Amino acid sequence: MRVSELFSSRPALSFEFFPPKNPEQESNLYKVLGELIAFTPDFASVTYGAMGTNREKTFFWVKEIKEKFAIEPVAHLTCVAATREDIAGQLNRLGRIGVENILAIRGDPPADQPGFIPPADGFRLAHELIAFIKAKKPAICVGAAGFPEGHPLTPSPEKDIEYLKQKIDAGAEYVITQLFFDNRHFFNFLNRCRLADIYVPIVPGIMPITNFKQVKKMTEICGATIPVELLKKLEKHAEDKAAIEAIGVEHAIVQCKELLAADVPGLHFFVMNQADPISRILKELRK
Question: Is 128 a catalytic residue?
């Protein structure tokens, strides 16, 4: 089923997983999926490693999610180091698995190669990848990434929206945002999108904080910010894992309630391959 069709009647629920790196993590992900399926998610996405690493595991897990858990899978697909031939081959493989939905992302160039140049027969930006996918496989439903606080490599919020509009014009049918911890960023982003005539569903991406060091590192990489009061709470309990998780879950619940009251088309949770924080949030939201 096309993901773009899931936002019409009620807020869609979706999860994002990353491919496990070893047998222990694989066993855990099966367990996590078994627990979260009780919340009847509308779809689940699987990330794609930097520079195309873990590609085989991405394909494996979208197949497992579809066949063993009967959840509509969305495969992430990045293009930063890929040729058109590479992408065409991956599209064919995903088609054989039965994947109808792709989240098309440029991907980050290697951090240690500031002068990185993509292949001559490759793609510079995500909108080029999206246009290629739609030309090769018109039936595939393509989603794009959005950045409420702006992509860290984009010079201005206006330019960021310009790039997003290019993705929509190329064929993207919905947007899933990068994580954020202050809903004002999402609402301001949504207003900028509407002013730019972007009217596809824009789904907020929510990541419950469960590890202080991890979230500090992630926000530095992706350009998101942590509100001052929330940061103070986290710093106060930085060495207490249970307290950090409780603070993160509580904050995510407040975020989600406000977003749902504003009639967002769905909630997309960055699960980090953990079931308990998401379960606690969803049980509270369904009271």
Answer: no
